[in-house]
Amino acid sequence: MEKIRKKRLSEIIDAWSELKSAYGIEIARRYLSEFPNDGVAMVYLGMMYAEIHRYNESTSILKKAIRNLPNSGYEIAKAYSALGYLYQEKGNFRTAERWYRKALNEEPKNPFHHQHVGEILNIQGDFDSAEKYFRSVTDMPTSRLNDQAYLELGRVLKSKEMYSEALDCFKKALTYGADQECIDEEIFDVKEAIRIITS
After folding, report:
1. Would residue 110 be called left, alpha or beta, if left means φ above 0 and alpha means ψ between -120 and 50 degrees?
2. Residue 133 lies in a domain
3. How many domains does the chain have?
4. Where do the TPR repeats lie (predicted)?
5. pLDDT digits over 99-134, tens only?
6. Of 74, 75, 95, 76, which is closest to residue 84 (Cα–Cα)?
């Protein structure tokens, strides 16, 4: 029975990772009707609700997941981060920041949590703090987020009118595989700003 339960839970996680929200929601609800206290399944159901903009249901199920998960670990951090995303989407940036920080406190070596805190601080105009978080991602030797971290760090530096440093970051983002078109626009923008300043 336990082997079958784990297989079904794995199918829910796979549906989420493959962006099959409708299918994933249906199999997660069916699963939870049989295993109503499975916090892990609730986390993935909540994230799939968020993908289709059903934020109220997502918030409700994620908060329920937190009550049903152990007080530490990967899955609780995932739930905290998902709640941060929901509040960010709703424009409630302070609450989003609080949830993102909880995720980071739970998993301080996870670059995704540093990235999320940096992004929410940047949105709120706290460029110095955002810069620190993006730099912490770029300093992680095995970060899979270096393309995004350098892109966002470049944008923060651009906001601080540190154009040469921003240009360096955009170029580094390219070396890590960032979207060429997006980076080209950023590079053009800061080069034009530098040209105006130096002419």
Report:
1. beta
2. no
3. 1
4. 39-72, 77-110, 147-180
5. 999 999 999 999 999 999 999 999 999 999 999 999
6. 95
Query: pLDDT digit string (tens) for 73-88?
Result: 889 999 999 999 999 9
Burial (CB count <10 Å: 0-12, 13-18, 19+), residue 71 = exposed
Residue appearing with tokens 């995720």? 103
The CATH number assigned to the domain holding 33 equals 1.25.40.10
Residue 69 belongs to domain spanning: 1-92
Total number of residues shown for the chain: 199
> How far is it, in rounded angstroms, from Cα 69 to Cα 92?
25
Widest pairwise Cα distance in the chain: 73
Could you tell me which of 59, 30, 73, 103 has the C-alpha nearest to residue 12? 30
